[in-house]
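Researcher: Next entry: Probable GTP-binding protein EngB (Selenomonas caprae).
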Amino acid sequence: VIITQGQYVASAVKKDQYPENDLPEIVFIGRSNVGKSSLINSLTRVNNLARVSSQPGKTQTINFFEVGLKIAEVEGRKAFYLVDLPGYGYAKTGKEKRKIWSKFIEEYLLTSQRLQFVCQLIDIRHEPMASDVEMFEWLVKNNIPVLIVATKCDKIGKTVRQRSIAAIKRKLGVAELSVLPYSSLKNEGRSDLLDVIGDSLVE
Ligand code: GDP
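Model: Predicted structure:
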């Protein structure tokens, strides 16, 4: 799978601002600072597509990027919307704000017609926090397919990595869950993630 292009399309705070093209959507979600912007930049190889933000919790919009790709076994090019959701679980966002945030995100996730799956990002160095578990359980409950991506995997050694992945599965309560380790710094996991994306688009 080769990415051929990536471009910013739209930011939305309400439904009528979603882009109108009928493309499949792949969603990225995670706690603030989990490495989501870095992962989007590394995956698409378009630098600063998702601005690596030093102010967690600042972006409260749903951002749509159109990504074009070439899949080896498939003729012609494919495209999808990479959907970047605002980070959750940021302590400094007030309770009220958080409520508005979740309503808006939930509405999007529950009504999107062409949602393929959600990549939920979890920092490989830490056990999933309450907000991670909550989000994961909510997705499962609503029959939204989830792929867990364990970010910043370059920060720990290979042995500890296996242990961390086991801990993530245990905490989320699903033993047969697939957890994909990723390093934006080293582009590790990139071709695996692209394969998963490619598969979801040709089925
Ligand atoms: P976001 O808030 O989820 O978008 O997180 P960012 O992409 O802004 O990353 C948060 C911090 O983690 C930044 O300082 C990044 O440089 C760092 N970071 C992100 N991904 C990686 C990674 O794969 N490896 C390492 N070592 N650091 C990372």
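Model: Note for the record: Residues 28 and 119 are 5 Å apart (CA to CA).
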